[in-house]
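[DERIVE C-ALPHA CELLS]
===
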Amino acid sequence: MKPRSPEFGNWVRTTREENRLSQQDLAKLASISQQTVSKIERTGIVPPDVSIERICMALHREMSEGLAIVNRQTTNQLFLLCEGSRREFIQRLSQHASKNDKVGVFFLEEGGPLDPQKFAIDWHRRVLDTSPKIYSSLLFRFPEDSINFNLYWHEMQRLVPGSENRFRGFNRHPNFVEDRNRALPVAREQILMTTPQGPDLYSHFLDPDAFDAELHLKTPHFEAKSKAMKLQPSTPERATKASQYLGLTSFTEVDPERWIHINPLASGNEK
C-alpha cells in the first residue's frame, strides 16, 4: 500500500494554483504524468523522492518544504499506531481493575540505569493513573541498573501523589543474580499484567520507523522515544512462563527469596 499524505496533496494543488499552473503544466515541468498529479492532489498519494524534488522545482519551492509535509503526515500515522497499542494496554488494564481488587503490573527492566527525565516516567504515570487498584513494580535483573531508582520513585510521588505503596522497585536477590556478560539478554522489555483471570504479557519496544521519523522532525530524543514506544501482546503460554520466571507469590507480590525490595527512603538512599 502506497503511503498517503492528504496534506501534501492539498499543498501541491494550492501551490500549483498560486503559480497559475494547470495540472498538465505541472506534469510537464516535473516530468510526470497528469494522472499522477491528479492522484497526488485528490488522494494524497506520495510519489518517490525524485518526483517530489521535480514537483518542488516546478513550483519554485525548496524540496525540504515538500518533504517536511510528507514526513509530518507519515510521522503522525506512525505515532497513531504506537499510541493505539498503548491505549489498548491501558484499556485492558482498566477492564481488569474494574473486575478485581488489585491488579499487578511487573516491568522486567534491562538496558542500563533509569533516568527520571526519560520517556518512561510518563508511561509509568499513565499506568498508575488508570486506577488506584493498580500496583506497579520495576524488577531489575542487574542491581547496578537500579542506581537511580530513588530519584525515579520521588518523581513518581510528585506526579501521582499517594502512590508510594503502589510503585515499587526490586533488585534480583544475590542468590539469583546473573552474570551480565553471560546472561541471555531480554530482547525487549517485558511487561506482565497479573489478575485472578491469568497473566497477560506484553513486549515493550521502540518502533524504529516511528523513532527515526520523529528525530527527522527534530523532536527531542527523549520525546521521540516516548512517541515511538509500542506494545505487542504475547501468547498465554509465554505469559505463564514469564510469571514463573519472576516468581510471583500473589497477583501483586514477588518472591522475597528471588527479589529484594528497594526502599527509596532508607538511610543512604534518600536524596
In short: The first strand starts at residue 103 and ends at 109. Residues 63-99 form the longest helix (37 residues). The radius of gyration is 25 Å.
